[in-house]
Design a protein that fits this description.
mainly alpha
């Protein structure tokens, strides 16, 4: 997520910027999947804080994309 977001800062166009952030969202979705699996496993440490952080990241990425499309 971080690498894709950082790469978006050097995008060649608005469309490229949005595309790179959408890739970051896909990476966040994958991370969420793995955290859900970890959360379901009884012997794994609690992942709720990480899931909450990830939810905040997803909200911000989606807001940035929505704002960029609106301009």
């Amino acid at each position: 997520m971080g690498a894709n977001s950082k790469e978006a800062q050097n995008a060649e166009s608005k469309a490229d910027f949005i595309h790179k952030l959408k890739i970051a969202i896909k990476e966040a979705d994958e991370a969420e999947y793995w955290l859900f699996l970890c959360e379901a496993h009884k012997s794994y440490p609690d992942c709720k804080e990480l899931l909450n952080d990830l939810e905040e990241i997803l909200k911000r990425l989606n807001k940035i994309i929505a704002t960029t499309k609106g301009n």
